[in-house]
Amino acid sequence: MNESIGINTLVMTGVGSAALFMAFQKVKTRAELSLAKHKSLAGHPRTAKRIAALLPSYRYDASQVFGLDGAPPDVVAQRQAAFERLVATIGQRFPATLAAGASVVEGLSDLQFVSAYRVPFQFRGLVDRGLKIGSFLQTSDGVTVTDLDGNVLYDLTGSYGVNLFGNDFYKACIDEGADAVRALGPVLGAYHPVMVDNVQRLKRVSGMDELSFHMSGTEAVMQAVRLARYHSGRKKIVRFCGSYHGWWGDVQPGIGNPMVAKDTYTLSEMGEGTLRVLRKRTDIACILLNPLQALHPNAAAPSDSSLMDGSRKAAYSREKYTAWLKTLRSICDEKGIALIFDEVFVGFRLAPGGAQEYFGVKADMVIYGKTLGGGLPIGVLCGKRAWMRRFRDDKPADICFARGTFNSHPYVMGAMNVFLKRLDNQDIRALYQNIDATWNDRAYHLNKRLTEAGIAVQVANMSSIWTVLYTQPGCYHWLFQHYLRLEGLALSWVGTGRIIFSLNYTNADFEEVSQRFVSAAKAMQADGWWWHDGAQTHKTIKRRIMGELLAAKFW
Predict the structure, then answer these.
(1) pTM of this structure
(2) Which residue, 521, 515, 472, is CA-closest to 496?
């Protein structure tokens, strides 16, 4: 009897110890995952979403909006007069362009969104008084665009990454591509023979075995993740803090997504904790990587809507990022994880063979879009055969389905074919010669001019992708986009957060842009927006805003 009790006690003790050990391991694994996340809210999507739901809306009134930083009365009056001039000048210079926007904004939800989120929400009352930016253009030529009022502006938008070689280049791609496929027209389902050349060229460019065509970069990312899950038998996705891979649920956790992305880990890029998680876990299907993040690791895409204190940061080291990619490649090989390069935005901008060529690291799957379509919408997934197959020979009902009505549209395939052929032209290849040195030198000289002019503005760049930084704290940096517009520099709706040059900018073109950039900065400085008493810091601004939020929430 005692012996039986002793055995039962041992068994129970063993079971308890095993349960305790398993619980400990679970807590340890969870703790390691938490430590691998970036400490900012961007690294904790669920927490960010909860906080966003609690934030109250409030707006600065006329009595406070021009003196938030404690500026003396004369500077406040200077700013108020400058604001009135800005509104008047914008109204005089862009009447038809602004009228076109006003005529459709009530029925166009896209325009409502970008108009509302172009600036920090606290300043929307000020913006509604007439500080508008036109969203309509009528022509493009060289490196310029022309609005509905005949204003010619230098195009710094890059069409969100599409415009790599210049708008005229893409007009020609579309026209020549349309001529090539016109006899077939918009017949869908069957392929135009131009597809044969596209497939062969893309296999050479990507270094991959197979590819599939989609209607957008977002769709191509969806298919890449689906295939990774299908072949690995795992469901977890790793993405990096601040990255963007389209707006579908699993790859856009947190703010902006009404659903919880349960199977997505948002980890810190270039972090040791991340490497520890990747080496230990056995449930990860793929790593999604956006090479653009090398410019601002672990930070969301820069936008003036969040520019409340000027603490935006950016820096780029090709060597460090290459080392990071090589480490990821090694871990993926060891753990059977699919390494996916999302090059929808940067594809072919860094090198003719994209980021794989530029960094010297091979992915398992790579996604292209935007510029590859020759100016038309496209998403392409290229990958190794082991990851790309959508069915199993021994299990006929076990498939990984993906199709779409407009996949491989003849007109898109035609424009793409012209793009791919031109990518081999000597004139186009010449644009890549010393590309980093060219754009780094241009950034250096613009920064030197700004420093010599005593302006607290600098730029950082990853090749021809730039962002604007502010070297002193301030509440009004978001206004800079309006001064730049008045100097004839066209920006995307995110404001001064991102500038994308097409590679056809000559030294003369860039010199003109530099002069206008500095002129805009001098005008903004002269109007008192960058007044600084030396006491204001990023921390004091953030504390003030926190106080405003609490007051709006509870009083």
Answers:
(1) 0.92
(2) 521
